[in-house]
Write a structure and sequence with these properties.
The complex is a heterodimer of chains A (about 160) and B (about 130).
Chain A: H1 2-15, H2 33-39, H3 53-61, H4 75-87, H5 92-95, H6 108-113, H7 119-122
Helix pairs in contact in A: 3-4
Chain B: H1 4-12, H2 21-35, H3 43-51, H4 64-67, E1 75-76, E2 83-84, H5 99-113, H6 120-132
Antiparallel strand pairs in B: 1-2
Helix pairs in contact in B: 2-6, 3-6
The chains are: A mainly alpha (about 160), B mainly alpha (about 130).
Chain lengths: ~160, ~130
């Protein structure tokens, strides 16, 4: 009987999709190489769903002064990146305002998802910046933001 | 048949990763020589540039701010914390194998750290150091 129960449990684990669907945000398979190269070198190539189309448009048009850095891209790459980000952008209503200039970390969704992270933790040298998703979400580059896969042990749930 | 090597080079020039670090050093050295007769790239000067501290950017006063004191090490972006692959060719075979990419990052990083564009001589020296360092 125990074996049957285990088999059923195991079967469910294999067949059922992971429950935390919103924690999976892999880049679309048709993500242009320009996005990964131009926007994924200094920070993670963020999932487009984390900002609204309007906020992405403002971000790409302001790359010349991107949080103090000149991250300008040439016209062709800029258009390709902008079209991609706007196509796969998140729902403005669900994300909430991202502020000025738009920041993923200022959206209501990001704040709600990270509300239990203390100010002290954000300052941890292993994390350095809230833009450093991979410091905690070790599978972020593959789109895994599940809270059980946190690489800082004291934050794992 | 004698045209085959030239044809191969021509074909290679159409792919994005066509160059070797030696070729990229050669391109910069040729530009430098045009400005200054008798120029020879020197790894020692490249190392000095790599370690020099500038007063342009508090968060990134030197190359080492993100790339660490050793080009053999992986680095970490001084602001975002993102990991950066080693600069030394011996530690990272992808380094200086794409002229356009090298030029793009010299352009961005020289401006951000030094506050001006790097000269062809500085780039030739830098690539020489990164190719030689063990």
């Amino acid at each position: 009987m125990k074996r049957i129960a285990l088999t059923v449990l195991f079967g469910m684990a294999v067949v059922l999709p992971p429950p935390a669907f919103a924690d999976r945000m892999p880049l679309p398979t048709n993500t242009p190489a320009s996005y990964k190269a131009e926007c994924g070198s200094c920070h993670l190539a963020f999932p487009p769903a984390l900002l609204s189309a309007n906020d992405w448009r403002r971000t790409v048009s302001g790359l010349k002064d991107h949080f103090g850095t000149d991250a300008a891209v040439d016209g062709k790459n800029g258009q390709e990146i902008s079209a991609f980000l706007e196509r796969y952008a998140g729902d403005a209503g669900k994300l909430g305002s991202a502020g000025e200039p738009p920041r993923i970390t200022q959206t209501a969704r990001f704040i709600r998802k990270h509300r239990e992270i203390s100010a002290k933790t954000w300052k941890d040298t292993r994390i350095k910046s809230a833009a450093n998703c991979e410091a905690c979400h070790r599978g972020a580059a593959q789109g895994n933001y599940n809270e059980h896969d946190i690489s800082v042990p004291e934050l794992r749930r | 048949m004698r045209a085959l090597p030239a044809l191969c080079l021509l074909l290679a020039s159409f792919t994005s990763q066509a160059e070797t670090p030696q070729q990229i050093r050669q391109i910069y050295a040729a530009e430098a020589t045009a400005l200054q007769a008798g120029f020879t790239p020197a790894g020692k000067r490249g190392e000095a540039l790599f370690r020099q501290r500038f007063s342009n950017n508090d968060k990134m006063p030197a190359c080492t701010s993100c790339h660490t004191d050793s080009p053999l090490n992986a680095g970490q972006h001084a602001i975002t914390g993102k990991s950066v692959k080693p600069l030394a060719v011996v530690a990272n075979a992808e380094r200086f194998t794409d002229q356009a990419k090298a030029e793009k990052w010299f352009g961005r990083n020289c401006k951000e750290v030094i506050g001006r564009a790097c000269t062809p001589a500085e780039k030739a020296d830098f690539v020489t150091y990164m190719s030689e360092v063990r």
